[in-house]
Every structure is written in structure tokens, then in C-alpha cells.
Amino acid sequence: MSDGEDRPEPDRIDGAPHPRMAGRVVGHARAVAEVDAAMAGAMPHAWLLSGPKGVGKATFAWTFARRLLGADADPQVAARVEALSEPRLALVRRAWDDRAKRLRTQITVDEIRKLRDFLGLSAPDGGRRVILIDAADEMNPAASNAVLKLLEEPPPKTVFLVICHNPAGLLPTIRSRCRPLRFDPLPPEDLGAALAGLGIESPDGAAAITALAGGSVGRAVGLIEGDGLGLYATLIALLAGCPNLDRSAALAFANAASARGAEAKRDMVFALIETALARLARAGTGAAGTTPVSPAEAETFARLAPGPAAARAWAELAQTVTARAAHALGVNLDPSGVILDILFKINETAGRVARP
Predict the structure, then answer these.
(1) Are residues 281 and 152 in the same domain?
(2) Average pLDDT in the 197-205 region?
(3) How far apart are CA 191 and CA 212, in angstroms?
(4) Do 176 and 242 lie in a common domain?
(5) Which of 28, 60, 234, 252 has its CA 20 to 30 A from that of 186?
(6) Which burial class, exposed, middle or buried, applies to 156 when counting CB atoms under 10 A from its CB (0-12, 13-18, 19+)?
(7) How far, in Å, CA of 346 to CA of 245, rounded?
(8) Does some domain include residue 221?
């Protein structure tokens, strides 16, 4: 069941093929073993695939869906899955808004209601049906309640594959009716293999990409395709001036990330700021995993995070910034103003904790 063709796909990362096109799952041996056991025994009616964005949950879900539908043994089924024309598969994701000519910002209850027709039809061969939701984080309250009703009275021979980046934000009753399947960030070797599987060659600065990606294939693709290393270098240069932030440079940085049509760049800037603050906090504690991505970062972090007290301050600011960015994106605030405000808060914190 398809929700439209020749339109942007909300569940596809720019610069990479859609997860349904992936040939194999890289890593996640524990999740593979759990599914193998379920395929050989009793199959739960719903699975909750949770973990950070971009670590391979969607690729795993589509691979799982193909197995459930018998695509591994039937090339025609496999082709229909890739074309989103398989009658035993329903994909729930953010829909296209014909009036606004853009993707909706949430999964609405209308998308869940469409499942009534899908579930009202018998599977052509009497086999399983699959409902894949990507991602549950994007459901509005009405959609969440509608999904809950389906999970409370699960249709026969139907398996729900629910992808979720932050399960704490889901209704507890939805979580309780799904078998959990947790996905962790990929180690560097698996991250490299996953990128190679997408046909993306390791670029110059591969070690820095790996460090900043945090085990997320999606983040790595975004960094490679969107000049992430250049943006991060600019951000570090701004931090290097704190607590005497170059305000004109900060304004230029914020405006460049907020231009019309630069949504991917805007999202990356927010993510890179969160990453920089998290790395600052870890650097202050001397924790593992803070190998500098550049000499400039090492020098800046050593001055801004000289010890545990500074680390705590940066960790607290990181939490505030994450919430602020999520709110800004959710209510369509002017991103340039939000980015600039965050940079000012970084400057203020640096004034309190940085080494002279």
C-alpha cells in the first residue's frame, strides 16, 4: 500500500537509497538472533524497534518485513515490496500535504484510518500481513490512540513493526503491547561497512566523520553529503572565541543555516551543536570516546572544559539545548534566532567555566 510516488519520502535520508532497497543488515547481531528465534517459533503480533536515529532500524524493519512476507523465496514479492505495491504490506509515515505542497510534520490519525481498508481485505494467499510504522515518534496524539486500539485487538496474522527513536515519548500502553527490540549505535567497523553497502565511499576525514556520527549511518551520510565537517569546523571556530563570541560571525552562521530550502543544513547545525556540547562534557570528565576530530577542537575543549565542574555545566546545557531545538522545530520558530540564542548561552556558560 503506497501513499504516493514521485514525492519526497519522509523516511529516507538525503543522499542514500530508501531502507527498503538495502540488500542486508549490518551489525545488530542480537536483534537478528531474536528475530530468527521468533521466525522459528511463536511470532509476536507487534515489535518496537527502538534506538538512536540512523543506526539501521528501518533497514532491519524492511528486511524483517520481506522475510515475513516470503520475499526471500519469491522475487515477485520482493519487487512489489520495493515498489510499495505489495498488497500485504502497509507503510505508515508522514503524508504529503497537497495544499501546502510539502510533507506533513506529523503522522495524523487519517493515516491510521487508512489501515481499516487494508485490514478489511483478506491476505491474497492467506498468509501474514505487515504494518510498518516509521516513525512512531512522529504520530500526533490522535494517531497514537488509534494505533493503540489496533494493538489492543490485534488483527489475525498481522505483524506490526513500529520504529521509534525515543520510546520514552510513546504511550506506555503502546510500549507494553510490543516486543522490544533495541538497536545500539554501530561500532566504527560496522559503520564503515554500512556506508560501503550504500555505495558511499569513505571520504577524506573519515575518522572525523566516524567520531561525529556517533554510530549512526544516517548521521554519517548527512555529514558526508552536507559538508558536515566544514560546518563543524565553523562551529568550533565560534566556540574558540568564547567567552568573547564573535557576534557577527555567529549571526552569519545562524542565517546560513536558516535560509529557505536549507532545512537539512538547519537540522545538521542543531545536531552538531548538540554533539559539540556532549563532546565538551565528556572531555571535561576525561571520559573515553573523546578523541579530538581536529587540533582546533582539542585546544578549544581543553580550555572550555578544564575539569568535572565544567563538564557538568556543559552536560546541563546540552540537555537544555536539545529540548530547545526540538521545541523550535516542532512549532516552526525562526531557526536563526534559536541558533543565535543557543550560541549566546554557550558564550555565557564559557564565561563561567572556561580556563582563562
Answers:
(1) no
(2) 74
(3) 12
(4) no
(5) 234
(6) exposed
(7) 9
(8) no
- Residue 62: C-alpha distances to residues 28, 59, 89, 161, 342 (Å): 14, 5, 10, 9, 38
C-alpha cell at 73: 523465496
**pLDDT digits 0-9 by tens, 256-286:** 988 777 778 888 999 999 999 999 999 998 7
Residue 18 makes CB contacts below 8 A (sequence gap 6+) with 9, 11, 12
Instruction: Give the Cα separation of 47 and 193 in Å (integer).
Output: 26
CATH number at residue 133: 3.40.50.300
- DSSP string for 305-320: --SHHHHHHHHHHHHH
Exposure string for 91-109, b = 16+ CB within 10 A, e = fewer: bbbbbeeeeeeeebebbbb
Q: Which domain, by its residues, includes 43?
A: 19-182
Q: How far apart, in whole angstroms, are the C-alpha atoms of residue 198 and residue 39?
A: 27
Q: Count structural domains, the chain.
A: 2
Instruction: State the residue for C-alpha cell 552569519.
Output: 252
Helix (H) or strand (E) holding 269: helix 263-285
The rounded distance, in Å, linking the Cα atoms of 4 and 149 is 26
CA distance 12 to 2: 15
Residue 102 lies in a domain: yes
Per residue in 282-341, pLDDT (tens digit) is 999 876 556 789 999 999 999 999 999 999 999 999 999 888 887 776 667 788 999 999
Query: What is the chain's alpha carbon radius of gyration, rounded to the nearest angstrom?
Result: 22
Helical (H) or strand (E) element with 302? helix 295-304
